[in-house]
Design goal:
Layout (H helix, E strand, L loop, with lengths): L1 H110 L6 E8 L8 E4 L12 E4 L3 E9 L4 E5 L6 E6 L5 E8 L2 E7 L9 E3 L7 E9 L6 E7 L9 E5 L2
Antiparallel strand pairs: 1-2, 1-12, 2-5, 3-4, 3-12, 4-5, 6-7, 6-9, 7-8, 8-11, 9-10, 10-11
């Protein structure tokens, strides 16, 4: 009996082992084929929005960074282009100024009489930056300029005389300087008159009331080559006064010129 009980016990143990083996095998197969696939779906279902959010944030940061980099790059490129355009504009302005200067010099030189010697001088200071109705020019004793030499603008318009000569500069006193007297004669009539400077390119002269003169009449400097020094602008007279006052202006505005020509002979 005892032997039979042991056999039954062993048989039961073996069945249990076999059941365990079969159960483990079934669980293993289901895990591999079904359960892991099911859990993988759950993991994929749960993870997908996380991955999508991560991708959205990552792409957003990348695109934002790219956008900022692009704006910075475009801004820098715009600045470079603006600077390049400004440089080209300045170059064109310099070229135009140089061309205008050359054209003006050609025009001036074309007016200078061939039988006279002139030295071209650049104006360093005009009446608004120098003594009243004077000019400072960039030539002096270094080019053997002499005090009293006549000074012209635009080649053929007398505007004054050299008042003082320095090493490399000179002071030009304009005919229109206040109180300065200049001898001249009225065009056509050849009547001699005396101009008195009033400053600012203006003159006045006193003439007999019976002398007929009109606005626009020119007053010339004495000499072989008669050149215009002033033009009549206004006539002031009273019937009871035997004389009348005539206001004249220089034919050129010194504020608009860059060079003068100094006569050396």
């Amino acid at each position: 009996m005892r032997h039979q009980f042991q056999d039954k016990k062993q048989i039961t143990r073996r069945k249990k082992i076999i059941r365990n083996i079969i159960g483990f095998g079934i669980f293993f197969i289901l895990s591999v084929v079904g359960f892991l696939s099911w859990t993988g779906k759950i993991f994929n279902y749960v993870g997908k929005p996380i991955w999508s959010a991560e991708k959205f944030v990552t792409d957003g940061l990348y695109n934002t960074n790219y956008l900022f980099r692009s704006k910075a790059s475009i801004t820098k490129e715009n600045h470079l282009l603006i600077e390049e355009i400004s440089d080209k504009k300045l170059s064109m302005i310099d070229y135009q100024i140089l061309k205008n200067d050359v054209d003006k010099l050609k025009e001036i030189l074309g007016r200078i009489p061939v039988n006279n010697d002139f030295i071209l001088g650049n104006i360093l200071a005009k009446p608004n930056h120098s003594l009243y109705d004077t000019l400072i020019i960039d030539i002096g004793s270094d080019l053997k300029l002499k005090k009293g030499s006549q000074v012209y603008a635009s080649g053929n318009i007398p505007i004054g005389n050299i008042a003082d000569v320095y090493d490399s500069t000179s002071l030009v006193s304009l005919y229109s300087s206040p109180g300065q007297k200049t001898e001249g004669f009225i065009d056509i009539t050849n009547i001699s008159v005396e101009l008195t400077g009033r400053g600012g390119g203006n003159f006045e002269m006193i003439i007999p009331i019976e002398l007929i003169i009109n606005k626009g009449t020119m007053v010339l400097l004495p000499g072989n080559s008669s050149l215009v020094v002033a033009v009549v602008d206004e006539i002031i007279s009273k019937p009871s006064d035997p004389f009348k006052k005539v206001i004249l202006t220089s034919p050129i505005n010194v504020q608009n010129i860059k060079w003068v020509q100094v006569k050396t002979n």
